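Hi V.,

You were right to ask for the full record rather than a summary. Here it is.
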Amino acid sequence: MNTVSIIVLVVLAILTLVQVMRISEVSSEIQGGKDNEVSEKDNDTQGRLMLLVGMGFVISVLVMYFSWGRLSLPEPSSAHGSEIDGLWNVSMLIINIVFFIVQPILFYFAYKYRGKKGTKAVHFAHNNKLELFWTVVPALALAVLIIWGLNVWSTLMMPENDEEPIVIELYAQQFNWTVRYSGSDNALGFASVYDIEGANILGVDTQDAASADDIVTKELHLPVGKPVSFQFRAQDVIHSAYFPHFRAQMNCVPGATTNFQFTPTITTAEIRQNKDVKRHVEEVNAIRTAKGEDVWDFNYVLLCNKICGAAHYNMQMDIIVETEDEYKAWLNEQKTVAETL
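Predicted structure:
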């Protein structure tokens, strides 16, 4: 079905809906508006349906928790990850407690106090104690979460390093990632989109002495236990570098450089032995085998978490976390900017 056909169908559907509404209005005018009167039976039906649908909704949330909760991310693989998880867990605990108390009461009251002939609503103008309760309690809960969150964020953005972090640049463009390692001097050379030409896909300034030992690759390798300072740039639109397993995310903005630091704590080989990861891999491969597809092995992944275009879903890169010796051996096999440009 081509675009023109879809547009025609949408227009016809809208015209049909307009005509149906017009017919309903004419019918109401002919009956003197009696068809719009709400009867006691209508109120009773709506009240019962509200209770049924509402409780069904609450039950469905429980079913989803028990059915798919196991598909959550495994343990964090960064030094700061436990702080993020702690903040998340407390926030979700509060949300769930409030949800499972308030929602059933809300739906039950909608049923209990449905319209009945002869009943009259009580006019409840004001209650200072009630106002104080529902103002102070949420305010205190939010204050604790916000202060805690700001403290965690400031710790992450202004880390106190016992050793100099490895500097790595992640360059985002529709719809892929490119990595630039800072080389032996641990300093990235200057780069600009205005210098992009031919093989120089990042616009690295080859006249800058710090650029000579930079290494540009399409692979992201990280040494376990070593702090890594990421510098982010974007070529075209806003992207967002999302490291779900490391509980880290940072926007990549055209014309600006952003940064984020974390320390990987679990190698790729080690996380593959995690019981939750192993179960997930087995489930995925059972499906892939049934479809005749190749088996899949778990890898850490870098994703784009901002909708950046038609192929946004496919903007991802595997991350290999390995020992420091393995990382240095791999890095020594790569060619520098001086050798490639």
